[in-house]
Amino acid sequence: MPSTPVSTEALLAVRGLSLAIQKTGPGRPRQVPAVTDLGFAIKPGETLALVGESGCGKSLSALALMRLLPPAIRITAGQVRFQGRELLDLPEAAMRELRGRGMAMIFQEPATSLNPVLTVGAQIGEVLLRHAALEGRNLDGRAVRERVEALLRQVGIADPARRLDEYPFQFSGGMKQRVMIAIALAAEPQLLIADEPTTALDVTVQAQILDLLAKLQAERGMAMLLITHDLGIVARMAHRVGVMYAGQLVELASREAFFQAPAHPYSQALFAALPEAVARGQRLKALAGQVPALAAMPAACRFAARCERRQPVCETEAPGLMPVGDEGGVRCHFPGPRPGSAAVEILPVPLPALPVAARPLLEIEALKVHFPIRKGFLQRVCGHVRAVDGVSLELSPGRTLALVGESGCGKTTVAKALMQLLPRSGGEVRWQGTLIEAKDKRQIQALRRKMQMVFQDPFASLNPRMRVGDILLEGMLALGVAASAEAGRPACVALLEQVGMKAEALERYPHEFSGGQRQRIAIARALAVAPQLLLCDEPTSALDVSVQAQILNLLRDLQAELKVAYLFITHNFAVVEYLAQEVAVMYLGRVVEQGPVEQVLTAPAHPYTEALLSAVPRISGGRPILRLQGETPSPAHPPEGCHFHPRCPKALEQCRNAYPPLRPLPGGVQVACHLAC
Amino acid sequence: MMSFQPVLLWTDVLLWLLLGCGVGLGIVSAHTLRQAWSRLGKNTVAMATATLLSAFLLVGLLDSLHYRERLPPAPGEVRVVYGVEVRSVLDGLLRQLREQSEKTYSAPFATRLYAKETLETPAGPVQGYPRLKYGGAHLGEHEAKRDKDVLQRAFASGVLAFLLWLGLAAGLTALLARRQGASHHETWQAIWQGETAFAWRGVLLALGGLLLVFLPMALWAGDYHVLGTDKVGQDVFYQVLKSIRTALVIGLVTTLVMLPLAVVLGIVAGYFRGWADDLIQYVYTVLNSIPGVLLIAAAVLMMQVLIDTHPQWFATAAERADLRLLALCVILGMTSWTGLARLLRGESLKLRELEYIQAARAFGVSSARIIGRHLLPNLMHIVVIALVMDFSSLVLAEAVLSYVGIGVDPSMISFGTMINNARMELGREPVVWWSLAAAFVFMFVLVLSANLFADAVRDAFDPRLD
Amino acid sequence: MLAYIFRRLLYAVPILIGVNLLTFALFFVVNTPDDMARMQLGVKHVTPEAIQKWKAERGYDRPLFWNPEAAGLARATDTIFFDKSVRMFVGDFGRAEDGRDIAREIRTRMGPSLAIALPTFLLGLCVSISLALILAFFRASALDFWGVVSCVALMSISGLFYIIGGQYLVAKVWKLVPISGFGEGLDAWRFLVLPVLIGVVAGLGSSTRWYRTLFLEEVNKDYVRTARAKGLPETRVFFRHILKNAMIPILTGVVVVIPLLFMGSLLTESFFGIPGLGSYTIDAINAQDFAVVRSMVFIGSVLYIVGLMLTDISYTLVDPRIRFE
CA nearest B370: which of A475, A467, A518? Predict the structure, then answer.
């Protein structure tokens, strides 16, 4: 829990900052405002978190502070005072001296933010040399090396003397982000701007990086501007919070005030949309509609169209940022706690908890998917990537099994192997007791009507060159559900209605729809052949929280209505808790724990489950923390013994030697751990 | 009884077929690539160069309708006899230019030959420049009036061009104004500032340029050799116009050969992978590793042997030249498909892992259908870009190959043969420059337009903009 | 490293065999030796005897692949394929129409070719990379715009015009250098200046534009933003970060042509009367000397494959990702 800083003098003060996108093309150049009238201040040692959904302008604002905006985006108005100096008036040369030393920045994608052809040491040393030169100091090679080593050690990289001569590709994702942090800290800046620093990382690694940032900040008394979309991270890291919506700051408050009683209806909606905020069996409060487009921004309140507290004045007059308390503010005509204060609506129908049927829908027995690694002149197979290495699962009709794990654990591979998109290397699959042979084309084709898949990225899962109608028809025609395009048409309309879209969408192309709408279309496509099982591969991970809530609600409604079963692949425990009855946790191609959601999530038996759960930043704290060392190793060379033992804080001698079998525990839980019995 | 007999040359058929394919492709992709097309339509440079290219295409197409004229019946002859010479519609239109041959070189607008000859005068034989048979013949004795005559015609046609252009612009403005319900002034403003959804500005500018250049040319060409004559006295202006077709055939028909190969092999290699991929990759690495000119040289040499040892295959000289041109296109196509195929293979490899193709496979959609419905439409932009990019390099290649002696038939008029013939005369004193200059200007305008158009197409079809 | 090069060498073998088979098919299967003889002899002199004689002189009177009349190993070796194609692998290219040994001719002509091609290549590379850097540095400015327009204009001019124009202006009108010819030793520079200059200018447009695109591709990458966020001056961002990354794609196109420099340039050499391999090839094409053309095709592909191998090796020098794998 961050402590409140002592100093009260603002290090950075932003006032009335406005950014616009320069549109070129036919006709006169136009400007489309991207950020309007942004204002906030950060004190030394303080962390301000800017929160908002994608496209709200938070990252652009951060780049504007560094004056690193892409050429098409201009600062149209405002002041940025840093250490008493007006940054927007500084000549570029003076600004360059400030970058790195006054304020430094880390970015979202550690994989692309480091120069691939320079050693890590050179990239850090460069900052030292540059800023030493600016101060008139002379650094020799040895001094630089020592300093770089010290920095690498500070950011938690083991064996820094050796690793500083390595190249970024030799580092894992989390390690790269540590290097980025070392670069940012090298010239000892007073302000660190962190733009979604952990979004590209797995939860356990995210927890490590957040810890590191918090520790370094405390040590150095550095101020931090943290850009994020995750309220859990805000709760964990920030002193104060700014919420952005459609290019405006709509609320600014201290963390305590914000989490106790968010004043802006949008902030409240953000909370309400979090799956973890509601009790199981209740419906998420999803925001209707979508963020207005930048080019068509309403002149009055920008949130009015989606606001349930809307009054006539909201559609005619733009609210200013009204001060709340000393340093807070809210941009709303009618701020205050939510009327009725109930954060959630109670779903009339409780969670469709069908009784476990006698016969499971799908049984997977010791499923294996190995990819050969080929090398040499004749492409000899010299090893295997064991992406899935003996996974057994059971799915019951109308119920949801969540498959959880970090990236690279093989969870998506399981789904693709079930869909025959990847060849199985071993194991058995039974549909309602019938063995499915991978080679039997007819059987597979029949299975495809019973089981369909929804993919992760709604932007990649719809062919941009096909109309929505044709996309929906494709499966029906291929599997003979509809005899012709004409015959399938009414079914398409019904499907669209089922997923909450209008029939007119049939004639349109995917790019005309937002991410959430596209995911609805993708779900409709999968439902087109009336499957009994839907494999959902992280269907909401590419979406903003408010849209995620819409999709999760939709999936729940569909399950209640159609009695369809889900295999729900995700890395997000909040979603598991909200949607699933059963959960299986995967690590390096194997299931390490599985059982009823209530059991597994409240009393995890495997240390990995425990660590995963405690790594998730939550808005309401409260879990004992179990931090993991390091990152997931490559599935081509899994560690000997229990795959998890090198990272396990509780590892014993026997964990090094033998992989533990999956053992049943009371309460229907199965766990593969030597410690659990 | 017809007064002519239509002749179908292979390249004619293919050129028209290609035009049909192009239009068809445009219509088919109008929907799926709508954004790209509309971006292209908005681009002033693209529309200006497209207008210029259409003018070139028009000349080339007129030159691709061939026939043989019926000979005047000999007395007592009942049979209908057609001439041996194959002519095109363009030849018919330019009959004057084609037939008004001088003896040898003459400079642009000259009234006399470029070389001294012994003239028979009443005072006896004198060394001098003889009067041209056709160039400036209408001036009669008054050769001194030539400059005035040329300028007068230039002025008259300039005014005419301007008026015509004004008429066009006014008509367009009126049409657009009526369609959009805006005032004429506003509409004109919008056109001129380039704010219309379709860059009419570019079309108007290009048309203005064309009118301004070619109306005077047309007015002069009846009585002068505007661009001079060559060694055998043939009008150079006629030659450059004829060269256009050769350049277009090389640039376009080659793609017709290359395209199916590149598309089929590229997609098969990328989508099916496995041994098909290995084989196709091997074939194109082998083809690629032979330096282009040498491979073409070898193939053309062999083709020459084939043609020369089988004279019985061809009815007329035009047919032989035409088949040789076609063979050149085939050879160029066979040697140049590798680049596009490799590009398409790489893209197919990427696309086949995309989720929408995975989704289609999850429905058990057949491979053929996946390729047709998912892969091809999403590769279309690469194909379109590659086609327009290749065009200009092929036109340039023709000139070089003809120079090296492995290009078109020496009897076929092309930029390459023009340059090749004219090059020898650079050593002359004073220099014969007009053939080279004419070939240079026409080729430059053609290739530059094609290059600028290709750039615009590449920008417009960039999928990152969708 | 050695193992790597060895492996690349092994990859090259099937490709060379493919090239060999392809050229053999092109030269001996599309047209029979009889056709070639008829062509070479001309209509007037075609008699069955003359054809036989022509074929016998060149060793074309044997079967293509398999000689059933010979004994033992000679059944395979006493054939056109073995004599004309397989022997190329050991550098035996046979004789040209004029009776000279092709391999020897190639050796003496490589020098002049290289004397033109190498300076053209190096100078052209330096100039176009520098220009591209300038354009990329001042991207989206008027300089950049007109620079690109000039590049496109330069690209749209046929190589023939560069040579004709340059020769006419520099050598004929200004009389600065001789129009054509070649000298031995240091004296050669007078003959080299013009062709090299023309070669550089002719290639300037397309290569500058290509390198500019490569640079711009890098300019928008994330690591460049990181470098700027460090407070580095723009020159350093360019020369240390961007240039080094852009070198990787530049190398792909550049290194592969280095061995091919031995082949010289067809056009330049023939226009300037330089006794290199380029003009040798052109003369052979015009004289329809099939043996020479066949040899040049083979040598060209050998050099290309060497170029591919050099490219692979050069990658390991600039790209650590490949070096360490």
Answer: A475
